[in-house]
Each structure stands twice: as structure tokens, then as C-alpha cells.
Amino acid sequence: MEIKENYSLKALNTFGIDVKARYFAVFQSVDELKALLTFQQQKGIPRLIIGGGSNILFTKDFDGIVLKNELGGIAVVSENDKNIFIKAGAGELWHNVVMQCVDKGYQGIENMALIPGCIGAAPMQNIGAYGIELKDVFYELQALNILSGEIENFDLARCEFGYRESVFKRKYRDQFVILNVTLRLNKIPVYNVSYGNLHQEIDAKYKGELSVKNIANAVIAIRQSKLPDPKFIGNAGSFFKNPEVDKEKVAQLKSMYSNLVSYPIDNQKEKLAAGWLIEQAGWKGKRIKDYGVHEKQALVLVNYGGSQGKDVYDLSTSIIDSVKEKFGLVLEREVNIY
Ligand code: FAD
Ligand code: NAP
Questions:
Q1: Which of 120, 158, 291, 308 has the most C-beta neighbours closer than 10 Å?
Q2: What is the 101 CA–ligand 2 centroid distance (Å)?
Q3: What's phi and psi for 85, nearest 5 deg?
Q4: Is 252 buried (19+), middle (13-18) or exposed (0-12) by CB count in 10 A?
Q5: 318 catalytically annotated
Q6: Distance CA 246, CA 216 (A)
Q7: Is 164 a catalytic residue?
Q8: Which of 245, 240, 256 lies closest to 298 in space, CA to CA?
Q9: Percent of the chain scored above 90 by pLDDT?
């Protein structure tokens, strides 16, 4: 285990922002993690745990220690007539876990294929896509309480999952390192293909035949056709959350914008598509020097290469301001800013 100094984080964040960490190290075991946390506490410097760096925007050098989680291992830990329980080390890539389940025919996470990053970060914002969220397949996780040094168990209720939210993003922010996650998958499939054009894609490509493999492949194809690949264009996926808005406000907006896109949440609230709001405010495809708003999905801010995180952050502020002016709604950033 080596602690590197003044280490470039460019390859470690999918925005491709070129900043440095004062110290940087990788941990592959809980003992290594504990030793690195002792180093950090002795130095009295900030720490940042990262996985794949796909939900992060660095706006400046990190004047502390960045710890990259590489805790590995994927295993079936138990099963019954209906379910199979898969436990993965927090450093395993989420998409690899999905594809291993897909290959074995374990159903439940195929709609979330191709989400970048590690499984250890998935509970942070209760990742979701194509009508499924982590919470729908989550069984439990183990996390290191940094203050006490104890490993604690979190079941579904304790994680307090919400829309792109969890207890780790709010109440326990920076207090726990997630070590492993256990998922509960189905042996008897309960497919969900009602989202957007997923069903049409399966009809067109697989004559409507539903299987975990066909659904995963359809999701992968749709995502590849719409989203910029961070290997070629820096980005962190959706930069903003979709706003959840009172029905009265939605009705008021619909009287002004008849093509407003909204989805029901409950009796009081509806979800608006932030990408649509940003597009209507005139930002879709807008490029400023080497950064901008993606041409196919206005929710995604991009770094075409060489731009500063601060520029991307300032762009996000301008977008928030203009959406507020046009619609009276305040967009919230989904990406974690450092
Ligand atoms: P990182 O970016 O490394 O970290 C994110 C946050 O979690 C940071 O605050 C970090 O400190 C914390 N963290 C990371 N690991 C741990 C740990 N082990 N313990 C405690 N804290 C930790 N998200 C979706 O929800 N749905 C999508 O469909 C989706 N699509 C995307 C598409 C693209 C092209 C991109 C670039 C991103 C997309 N995202 C999506 C966002 C992102 O991939 C997810 O949020 C992912 O879970 C982040 O994982 P990561 O390992 O990269 O986390
Ligand atoms: P899309 O299908 O063009 O849809 C635009 C927005 O409308 C989405 O944000 C989605 O909300 C909402 N929506 C569409 N159909 C819906 C339905 N039937 N029910 C409820 N809400 C619906 O979006 P996209 O950009 O191509 O993304 C597709 C999926 O991948 C979405 O689930 C999205 O969340 C996910 N994704 C997430 C990220 C990220 O970084 N968080 C990045 C890329 C893609 P939801 O976002 O709530 O689903």
C-alpha cells in the first residue's frame, strides 16, 4: 500500500478534470483502509473515498487524501426457492455485477446495466434507471463507522433510500465507508419494461421476447445511442435531479407550457424531467469553449477536454438561474461537488 503525493486525479474522475490530490492511495482490504484513515487523522487533513469517480465534479485540487476503494469479490451467499443473494465488495464495478447476474439469469438489475462506477457508491444515491432503483433489489450492506472503527450492518430501512437519496448522502455524510453490498435477485422473473421506449426496443430487436439478457442488451443499446461515453467525452451522467413538484404548480406550468413533461409520484407530487426544463431554457447542445451541455441530453454537462471543474460548476449555476427565471423551479445538483 503506497501513499502517493500530489497525485493527478484526471484518470480517476469521468469528467476528466485535471486536479491533484495532496495524497492518494488505493485500499484493497479493511485493514489497509483503517491504516490509511489513521494516517489521515494523524495529519489532520480531509479525506475523500472514491470508487469510479463517475458522480463527482472536482472544482479545485483536493488538499487532503483521496482513497480509492478496490475491495473486491462477488459471491452467492445464500438462496431460497424465490431469491438468490449476491454479495459484492464495494470496489467491484456495478456493470460487471449486473452482467454476472444477467449471464446466470438472476433477475432484478438488468434495467440498470451500463451505469458506471462501483457497487459501493450505488447506495449513496440509490442509483436508478429505466424504472428500477437499487432499493428494489437491495438486501443489506456493511460499512465502516469511521469514528468508532466498528463495522455496522445496514438493512433497507436503515439506508433511508429516496429518489437519488440515502442516509449516506445526508445524515451520515462522510461518516461511513461502504465495504460491501448484498443484493436480493429473483429466480422467478418479474420483468419491468414499461419505461420509455424500452419495450419498443425489445420488440424491434428481440421480437418482444423478454429475458434478463434481452432487457440488459436493450438498455445498453438505448444508453449507448443517447449518452456520451466518458471515455471520449467527460461527463458524470445527469448533473441535476428531476424536480419533484406539487400538483398545483405542475397544473400552473401546464397552462403555460402545454407540452410540459411530468410523471405522477403520489397524490400530491409529480416529477418533472429536468432535461426538458433545461432544453426549454435554451441550453441543449450549448458549447462554451471546451465544456457545455450535451447535444442529445440536456441533463448531462460535458467536458470536451481541458476545461476546469470550476467552469462546469459555473455553467451549472447559470442553468439553475435560468430555469428558475423561466419556470420558478430550483434545480438541485445530483453530482457531488468537491
Ligand atoms: P464516485 O463518483 O467515486 O463517488 C460518488 C460519491 O459516493 C462520492 O461522494 C464518494 O465520496 C461516495 N462514495 C463512493 N464510494 C463510497 C464508499 N465505498 N463508501 C462511502 N462513500 C462512497 N447514476 C444513476 O443513478 N443512474 C444512471 O443511470 C446513471 N448513469 C450514468 C451514466 C454516465 C455516463 C455517468 C458518467 C454517470 C451515471 N450515473 C448514473 C452516475 C454514477 O455512475 C452513479 O452515481 C455511480 O453509482 C457512482 O459510482 P462511483 O463509484 O463512480 O462513485
Ligand atoms: P429519458 O428516458 O429521456 O427520460 C427523461 C426523464 O423523464 C428521465 O429523467 C426520467 O426520470 C423521466 N421518465 C421517462 N420515462 C418515465 C417513466 N415512464 N416514468 C417515470 N419517469 C420517466 O432519460 P434518459 O436520460 O435517456 O435516461 C434513461 C434512464 O437512465 C433514466 O431512468 C435516468 O434516470 C437514467 N440515467 C441516469 C443518469 C444519472 O446520472 N443519474 C444518467 C443517465 C441515465 P428518472 O430519471 O427518474 O428515471
A1: 120
A2: 23
A3: -110, 120
A4: middle
A5: no
A6: 34
A7: yes
A8: 240
A9: 99
